[in-house]
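Justification of computing resources. Each target in the renewal requires a structure prediction run like the one illustrated here; the chain below, 97 residues long, is used simply to show the kind of job we budget for.
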Amino acid sequence: MEDFITRSSEEYKELRKTVFQALKSVNRLIEEHRPSIFDEVYLTGEEVREMFGISKRSLQNYRDARIIPYTTIGGKFLYPQSRIFDVLERNYRKALR
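Resulting structure tokens:
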């Protein structure tokens, strides 16, 4: 006699659970994936503002003062991630404790 897997069998339920977990993982990876251009990942203004905890106006002031590097494509500002990290590192100050 052959064994059959049905929708009510434990094997099916476990397989279904595993498939849904895999799909969730794939979707999360797709959402988090940052394509690179010439081996550089670019951040949006919103991501940079969130990283620094600053307003749109402050970000504009940083661009105008050339404090942070950026490029524009089609009127959209993009910020090279590695260069943003360089700015953070250059301006890092240790606590006095």
